[in-house]
UniProtKB/TrEMBL annotation:
Parts forming coiled coils: 116-203
Major localization listed first in the record, in broad terms: cytoplasm
Protein name: Protein Atg16l2
InterPro entries from the UniProt entry: ATG16, Autophagy-rel_prot_16_dom, WD40/YVTN_repeat-like_dom_sf, WD40_PAC1, WD40_repeat_CS, WD40_repeat_dom_sf, WD40_rpt
Organism in which the protein naturally occurs: Pipistrellus kuhlii (Kuhl's pipistrelle)
Disordered: region residues: 51-84, 228-249
Statement: the UniProt record of this protein carries the keyword Endoplasmic reticulum: no
Family membership noted in the UniProt record: Belongs to the WD repeat ATG16 family.
Amino acid sequence: MAGPGAPAARWKSHIVRQLRQRDRAQKALFLELVPAYNRLLEKAELLARFSDKLQPEPNDVTPTPHQGPGDEESPSNADQVPSPDILRVKWQEEKEGLRLVCGEMAYQVVEKTAALGALETELEERQSRLAALEARAAQLREERARQAGQVDARRARNAAQRAAYEALRRQAGRREAALRALEEEARDLLERLVQRKARAAAERNLRNERRERAKQALVSQELKKAAKRTVSISENPDTSGNGTREKAEVTLPLPAEPEFLESEAGEKRPFRSASATSLTLSRCVDVVKGLLHFKKRRGHSIGGVFEQQYQGLPVCVAARLPTWAQDVLDAHLSEVNAVCFSSNGSLLATGGADHLIHLWNVVGGRLKANQTLGGAGSSITSVDFDPSGSQLLAATYSQAAQLWKVGEAQSKETLTGHTDKVTAAKFKLTRHQAVTGSRDRTVKEWDLCRACCSRTINVLSYCNDVVCGDHVIISGHNDQKIRFWDSRGPRCTQVIPVQGRVTSLSLSHDQLHLLSCSRDNTLKVIDLRFSNIRQVFRADGFKCGSDWTKAVFSPDQSFALAGSWDGALYIWDVDTGKLESSLRGPHCAAVNAVAWCCSGDQVVSVDQARKVVLWH
């Protein structure tokens, strides 16, 4: 820090510097004037000496003004000085000229003095402005030094936070690995427990069967003994007086068919032989075992419960590649996230961040507004028609999925249960069933008749998209994996890793191929019969614009279509893996989603700049 005398020394030096600058400026103005004035003084002094020499003396003889015509001019007249009158006249003329020059110079001195004053005023203003700028520069240097210190501190803090983040990431990786190991161990334990319970149940059934057989054998032996026992029967009452009755011993053979025995009261009661009783018990045991076996088979069979399927969807024979934009609309108030055609291609749905879903009719190559569906309450992330085209399902950021009936403006059902944004919602091929995926790391199956969750699948990573087959649910996740779930069992049946976060999934019509789009800027075709990657699509300039960029198959499964961050559409041939074409034009922002009509003639794309484009 400077001492108290520093400001005084500063302004004194500033005054001295200004005085020196003024002296230099004024001296520069008089540098030409002073020599000229000195020359004038020298000439005046020289003329004064000439005038003194030319003064006539008293003894001078005046020459004869006239000479004779025959006289010649003497050589002495040629060397004489001009007459004083002539010199005096010349001196007066030169004096007048010098006076005029002196006047002009004095006038110039006045002008130069005025100009000098103006320049001094301007100099003072510039010096004051320079002083203000120097003070501002000093403040800026101090501010720069302070901000540089803050930048260094933030860099150090960022480095510390980066190190802490790396440590936490490693710790999370270790815990995730430990969690996977524990889950594997839990699954193994569960399998062993189920096997033990199955063995215990089998052993108990065997013991019960042995016990039942022993009981049947005991009953059979008792029936045989009872059949061979001698029975006393009174035929006539006592007529004699001794009070005795005649008895007949009858040995009853083992009957083959059920008979009726007559009681002492004259009533008939059923009697079954040992063979008939044994047959009946064994048949009952067989029937019970058959029922149990059927129940067990029914609980683990595909056909255990009758499931009503949708009718077959129309199949496209050959899709046509789009070449030009037929219609361009600013359809929403903000970016458009989702687009979907109905099963017959007559209706189109678009959903955006303005919380609205617009339904469009494709008429004559133009998009005509049909209906607007409200009530979502948050941004729309996914839309899907059911195979019949009568219902529409949308995933929203409000931790729920909304179900509409086509033709009704109000939402029919709200599927709540997720604890974070719902990123995907799709209908299953079975009627009144749907599947949703969320950022809360769960995939849920829904019974739409009761509007309740029938099953929750917990996953280790965010779910970005789901698709449904006949008996399989496929989910794409943020941890660069595609997971397969059997809708008839609780476990994950298969995991396929890919490079980059999965942004979308598209299942072919025959359910034999799966198209995935990921943040490594590639599309992959997975053969579900062999669970391997059949094709990988890349292109110069293609880049996924977001974590929800959607790619689709063409209806005939011959092409793959996706939108890029620069607004271009890229189309690849599925069989050869080559880029067929790229479409550019109306889009000036990243393309979020695309849809291909089931007829194969039209394509619709939506972007982050509110545009919906119909391609033909």
